[in-house]
Amino acid sequence: MAMHFTTLVAVVCATVCGAYSQSIVFDDAPGMGRQFDGIGGLSGGGATSKLLVNYPQEQRDQILDYLFKPNFGASLHILKVEIGGDVQSTDGTEASHMHNSWEENYQRGYEWWLMKEAKKRNPNIKLYGLPWGFPGWIGQGTRSPYVNVSMTADYIVRWINGAKVYHNLTIDYVGIWNERPYDISYIKALRATLDARGFQNTLVIAADEKWEIATDIQADPALAKIVHAIGCHYPGTLSDPDAVSTGKQLWASEDYSTFNDDVGGGCWARILNQNYVNGLMTATISWNLIASYYDNLPFYGDGLMTAVEPWSGNYVVETPIWVSAHTTQFAFIGWNYLKHDSGVGKLPKGGSYVGLVNPTWTELTIVIETMTHNHSLCVRPPLPAYNVEPQVVTVSLAGKFSSITEMNVWYSKLGFDGAKDILFEKKDPIKFVNGKAQLSLGLDEVITLTTMTTGQKGVYPEPPPSQPFPLPYTEDFESYKPPQEPPNLAQQFGVYEVTKLPGPHGNVIRQLSLQAPIVWCGGSGPADAGNKSLNIAGSRNWTDIYVAVDFQLPVINGSLGAFVAARVDEGGCEAFAAHGIFLFAFPDRYIVTNDLARTKTLKEGSLAFEAGEWHRLGLLVQDGNVQGSFDNKILFNMTVPALPVSGFAAIGTDTFGLADFDNLQLTGPSEGRKIMSKHLHSKSLYFEKEHH
Ligand SMILES: *[C@@H]1O[C@H](CO)[C@@H](O)[C@H](O)[C@H]1NC(C)=O
Ligand SMILES: *[C@@H]1O[C@H](CO)[C@@H](O)[C@H](O)[C@H]1NC(C)=O
Ligand SMILES: *[C@@H]1O[C@H](CO)[C@@H](O)[C@H](O)[C@H]1NC(C)=O
Ligand SMILES: *[C@@H]1O[C@H](CO)[C@@H](O)[C@H](O)[C@H]1NC(C)=O
Ligand SMILES: *[C@@H]1O[C@H](CO)[C@@H](O)[C@H](O)[C@H]1NC(C)=O
Ligand SMILES: *[C@@H]1O[C@H](CO)[C@@H](O)[C@H](O)[C@H]1NC(C)=O
Ligand SMILES: *[C@@H]1O[C@H](CO)[C@@H](O)[C@H](O)[C@H]1NC(C)=O
């Protein structure tokens, strides 16, 4: 008989085909495997949803539907978010609810908003918070979050309480310190503080790194009682025997992190099944939820879908959304996996299958994947070689399931080498005769067989076409409500909020970090760049550009200096080493450097201004020359440094400390030249200095 290996063919098994195929059995008689804890996405760690917030409402709602709406798209079960700590946490900085010990605010950043949007669509979605870093005051001068564990526990539980009080959000899970050392006395202090404040139902996941906490759990019954699930990052589908023997639920509490093309989709399909098949992991959370950060920032595009153009409304629903749907739309938190060899396992010729059953054992969902090695590589860890071949399998339903006569079929095949993707298509139901049906499996396929009659491939009209960042761009921040984050400005160090000042400036953006935070990344992090704040905008690809901004350094707790910059070539954890063209203004001088850290001065001259005064800084890069201006007078005209050839526009401060910015202006070079030549006719500062 002819076998079609490239398309799904379900044939009722005649005696003759039995010889061709091996059986995979789904049987409840041996009992159930572990409880399924869900599939999730991670917003933050960091600033990965930055650009989403500023989308036009219509497209933003569509995107949120693709992510969270049940029976529509990824229909996620878990939303994990960063508990902002004013630190760079991969693609930017997220705001802490307590920049300083003497204040707190639960309206900052975008994670509150995102959690509410998720809950609005799916009231059953579980929420999970985890810090990447902490504001500096938590360390009491040490830059460790564990120097006073009750202080840190208080700080974290305040965030959980703020979620409840200000947003009516229940935080289901809380973690320790992302991919950084855990401290057992802190975990105990956290549990005690949660209990004391009425959050007995907020469960602790530890420790969001590898499996090493398993041995501590084995040795310490009190700790064992506290840890609800062991969360491991990038487990490569394998769990540690020590972790298994704790009896705790095991989670891939951060995974994926792979560019969201078809190989990314293949990675996601393989790990969603095999994290349980190989490693008994019952939850898998994608870093990140949505790639919504500027082009060329680290791990660009490593989300379930992409939305990087708030100005155009363009977004792209990528393959991982539909791969998620194969599981998320047909199995839910509280369902159970079947046991290995009676509903969970590897396919005879490569690939894997999992069977999931609802709590009353009346519904069965089977997810099968046949991802080939090269088409399912994840960013990490390395994937050992293996083979997958086209195959015919007999799906054999036993026990309670043997009475099933038909299952609904959802089918995807990732298209490589020019082949078109088939994504989450509903096929004709598959018939079972005496509990048996044959399935012909090709390569790079995901197939869901389910008794569930729900499920939908959600669709919206094509979003508006892609557009570059709109120039000229001016921003006076008047349309934003404090303490919103400035739209389109992606803070990399320090933390910026729209702030209302008395007087003519009205809304400005203010840098609010007063001291170096307890960092997550970047070696000694901002300290390496002399505790500078950095806030980027536009595109990593910008070459010639004009950037100007009003600034003031407040008298109380002010930063020592402010800068504008062009061609800034780094964001993320390495941003302390960013190169570009930086014009710093200090009360007594200006300095032009080729890097954020100010390791080499290209040009300097004098200035005279005081803290508490507003001034305007400008920088024009055009045709091989750079001109700087202060209060609309030209400061210098020099040759553009050879490198970098392109980069973001930026503003920032020279040390932590308050600084205000207003009337940000970004234009293309020709308009910038017109502005600069007007300045030429004003009294030139540098002329005055050089000819006096
Ligand atoms: C630890 O922090 C708490 C506030 O959360 C404070 O009451 C206590 O005095 C601090 N302990 C020390 C040793 O600083
Ligand atoms: C808070 O959320 C719960 C569901 O979690 C809902 O039942 C309740 O109505 C909400 N309360 C308010 C004031 O919105
Ligand atoms: C997988 O990729 C490797 C490295 O690029 C290549 O050598 C190998 O031939 C590929 N395998 C298949 C089956 O395409
Ligand atoms: C940055 O600030 C921290 C404390 O806030 C300090 O320990 C460190 O030395 C500073 N780094 C530089 C380069 O000034
Ligand atoms: C920026 O340049 C890179 C490399 O040439 C390119 O891949 C990317 O698409 C460009 N991004 C934008 C937004 O133009
Ligand atoms: C300035 O810092 C001090 C602590 O060093 C603090 O008490 C005060 O509230 C701060 N003022 C402002 C405006 O930030
Ligand atoms: C800057 O210097 C270049 C090269 O000397 C010159 O061509 C250009 O006109 C100067 N621009 C201004 C605004 O002075």
From TrEMBL:
Residues 491-666 form the Glycosyl hydrolase family 59 C-terminal lectin domain. Keywords: Disulfide bond, Glycoprotein, Glycosidase, Hydrolase, Lipid degradation, Lipid metabolism, Signal, Sphingolipid metabolism. Its EC number is 3.2.1.46. The keyword Disulfide bond applies. InterPro entries: Aldolase_TIM (IPR013785), GH (IPR017853), GH59_C (IPR049162), GH59_cat (IPR049161), Glyco_hydro_59 (IPR001286), Glyco_hydro_59_dom (IPR035394). The keyword Lipid metabolism applies. Residues 338-456 form the Glycosyl hydrolase family 59 central domain. Residues 1-21 form the signal peptide. Residues 36-329 form the Glycosyl hydrolase family 59 catalytic domain. Pfam families: Glyco_hydro_59, Glyco_hydro_59_C, Glyco_hydro_59M. Belongs to the glycosyl hydrolase 59 family. This is galactosylceramidase. The gene is LOC101856769.
